[in-house]
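<derive_structure_tokens>
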Amino acid sequence: MDKKSATSSSSSSSNNNNGTSKPSKEPIYKSTLDTYQQWASTYDMDGNFLQALDTLELEHMLPYFFDVLPSAPKIVDLGCGTGRNTACLLRIPGAKILGLDNSQAMLQRAESRCGPLLKSSEAESLDFEVWDMLSLQETKDVPDSIKNADAIISTLVVEHIPLHQYFMACSRTLKPGGHVLCTNMHPEMGAISQAGFQDPATGDKIRPVSYTHTIRELLWCASTWDFSVMWGPKERKVQEGDLVKLGERGRKWVEVHAWFGVILRKL
């Protein structure tokens, strides 16, 4: 597992002869929270091809995930961001949905997207809560509102979390027999790139803390927290024909494994 992080140096931006700031050529590394607070306003509009690929692959994962849920389940969207997948959960009859994220700015976007859909949906309730998974410790439990969930959906999140901490959170959140749907950037892509965005105001490339988790490492850590594999893992390579749906930003990743997904069950 490789960790990608750095502190931005004083040379991360330069001045021209007029004393105005030029965009940084090198990425500026920030905390995950600060990055997503800043990214929230453009997160759904910047043509992120990995989000598009994740959405395509969830079309295959969600039917199985929905089938293993009990009636009227409590579902936690762990790292829900702007609610891209929270909205999908609203089709589950009687569902009690809780979206969690450490970024208030991302949660505001999620509430704006999903809140108006609740009344006409099949779900019973929808709530959002600020919670930072990184605050979890061996001696500090998850909040009571999160506990006793039947299922967790967590997409493109574990890249930013140490595996031990991630599965500690999942284990303490779920009932025995509960399921986790987890997707992430593939380590082949992660060895080359990471999550991040270009600040439209400054042109700077902003990057959060990221970890290149291998699939083997993820599954091994899951097993130490008594999770077993129920679906997958599936690995997804970008193909030329995908670009119609993924956009031209995906072209540089053709023939590269960019995504993987797995569904786990807590014993």
